[in-house]
Inverse folding.
């Protein structure tokens, strides 16, 4: 332990002695890897707007669960997955277009206002704290059981993405040829958006509904700038998201007034800015 203290410093090693910090690191790490992997395909398939719509679905679903008096995670997952699959079904080849997303986006926002009113004026007399936590994340408030669920769900998402990376890549890059070769492009697209929904629901606990797009899309966008090789970019996206979560939690621990969600997304944004600057300096570099 003395060597670790010398390497990291006493304040950081003290961080690992606090249960809520360890739970945040464990859950945040799993969520980051899943978000980085899913986010790469979200960017590759030009479906970032879909992720933005799901961030609002996450808020609405959580408020619906709170208004009904049930665990808000039920609302997060059911809402995100249901709307993700619905948007995929309404689109072509499992891809929701801007018209579909825009209509869902507007309706979900109105539905969110309705459930917010029910929650704050209902018999339970919600004080709004839970709603704020959904908006901005509450990773430090995860219990041991919630951490276990987060890790299990994120691990499942990551394994599915890795196992299906090749066919999903083929369907993403050249859907017409993939379909001609017998690949179920529409079913793949729908399954992928269902995974995005699960990841959005899970990531809401870490960075909040308003900011999940930054954890889903920004590491992937940075990775895409750094290498044209899809499998390297996939791994790099997950790595950037993981580093951002760890760095953000450490920064938030060192400066207690710094919200962890803001710190995490500041790092992902910084990574994207650096990646963009590097790619502009070396426009012809072969990173493959």
């Amino acid at each position: 332990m003395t060597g670790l203290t010398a390497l990291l410093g006493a304040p950081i090693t003290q961080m690992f002695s606090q249960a809520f910090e360890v739970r945040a690191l464990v859950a945040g790490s799993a969520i980051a890897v899943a978000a980085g992997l899913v986010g790469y395909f979200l960017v590759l398939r030009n479906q970032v707007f879909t992720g933005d719509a799901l961030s609002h679905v996450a808020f609405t679903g959580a408020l619906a669960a709170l208004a009904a008096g049930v665990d808000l995670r039920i609302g997060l997952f059911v809402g995100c997955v249901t709307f993700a699959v619905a948007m995929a079904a309404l689109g072509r080849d499992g891809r929701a277009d801007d018209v579909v997303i825009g209509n869902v986006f507007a309706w979900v926002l109105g539905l969110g206002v309705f459930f917010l009113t029910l929650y704050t004026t209902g018999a339970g007399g919600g004080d709004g704290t839970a709603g704020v936590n959904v908006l901005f994340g509450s990773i430090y408030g995860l219990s041991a059981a919630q951490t276990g669920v987060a890790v299990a769900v994120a691990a499942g998402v990551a394994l599915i993405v890795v196992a299906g990376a090749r066919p999903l890549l083929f369907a993403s890059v050249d859907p017409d040829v993939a379909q001609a070769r017998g690949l179920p492009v529409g079913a793949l697209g729908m399954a992928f958006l269902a995974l995005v929904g699960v990841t959005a629901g899970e990531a809401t606990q870490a960075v909040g509904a308003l900011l999940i797009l930054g954890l889903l899309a920004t590491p992937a966008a940075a990775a895409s700038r750094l290498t044209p090789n899809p499998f390297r970019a996939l791994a790099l996206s997950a790595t950037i998201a993981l580093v951002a979560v760890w760095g953000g939690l450490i920064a938030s621990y060192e400066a207690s007034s710094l919200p962890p969600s803001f710190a995490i997304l500041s790092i992902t944004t910084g990574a994207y800015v650096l990646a963009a600057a590097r790619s502009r300096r070396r426009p012809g570099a072969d990173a493959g």
